[in-house]
Amino acid sequence: MYRLTGDLAWMDKAWDMFKVIEKHTRTEYASAALDDITMMKPDQLDSMESFWLAETLKYFYLVFSDWELCDLDEWVLNTEAHPLRRADA
């Protein structure tokens, strides 16, 4: 939404989400999956979902990167955050 609207409130929300995810998933070597995210202090699992790196971090990167990195008039992102050139671009 931030990239579409330019409204900094969306970037702030993304940063808040990133901080909370980092707080609860950070381990010594990587990021852990969580047992139950409805709990105030969820238990960490001894695993990391592949979509954490392949999708979630990629979307955070795009939110905080320069807009020129991925021009949304030229590219569309699929659900796994892979950029695909628009046919009409």
Automatic annotation (TrEMBL):
Which N-terminal stretch is annotated as signal sequence? none
Does Hydrolase count among this protein's keywords? yes
Q: Which residues are noted in the entry as Ca(2+)-binding? A: 79
Q: Which cofactor names does the annotation list?
A: Ca(2+)
Keyword Hydrolase attached: yes
Q: Which GO terms describe its molecular function?
A: calcium ion binding; mannosyl-oligosaccharide 1,2-alpha-mannosidase activity
**Coiled-coil stretches:** none
A GO CC annotation recorded here is:
endoplasmic reticulum
- One of this protein's GO BP terms? carbohydrate metabolic process
Its annotated pathway reads: Protein modification; protein glycosylation
Report the InterPro entries cross-referenced here: 6hp_glycosidase-like_sf, Glyco_hydro_47, Glycosyl_Hydrolase_47, Seven-hairpin_glycosidases
Keywords associated with the record: Calcium, Disulfide bond, Hydrolase, Metal-binding
A Pfam family reported for this protein in Swiss-Prot or TrEMBL: Glyco_hydro_47
Family stated for the protein in its record: Belongs to the glycosyl hydrolase 47 family.
Name-wise, this protein is Alpha-1,2-Mannosidase
* Organism, as annotated: Xylaria bambusicola
